[in-house]
Amino acid sequence: MRPELKNITARKLVNALEKDGFKLAKGRGGHRVYYNPDHRIVVVPFHRSGDTFPIGTLSSMLKSIKWTENDLRRLGLFK
Q1: Contact indicator for 44, 17 with CB cutoff of 8 Å
Q2: Which of 7, 8, 12, 33 measures 20 to 30 Å from 69, CA to CA?
Q3: CA distance 69 to 28
Q4: Which domains are present in the chain?
Q5: Distance of alpha carbon 63 from its chain centroid, rounded?
Q6: pLDDT digits (tens, 9 = 90+) for 22-44
Q7: pTM for the full model?
């Protein structure tokens, strides 16, 4: 995993998800579930918008989202 990714905040990730077509399906407590019409689903732990994610959590979310390095660049998560 690239070092720049460990600085992704919950707000940045949610903005990138919405930019990529994900919609909020439900949110309860500290977790929000986003889905994409192509059947990708991701659960985002969202306690405070400025919080960053532990590496394992972020890695798991990116794996379920199936974003490539080019997608991450396109969405502005790193250069």
Answers
A1: yes
A2: 33
A3: 30
A4: 3-73 (3.30.920.30)
A5: 10
A6: 999 998 888 999 999 999 999 99
A7: 0.89
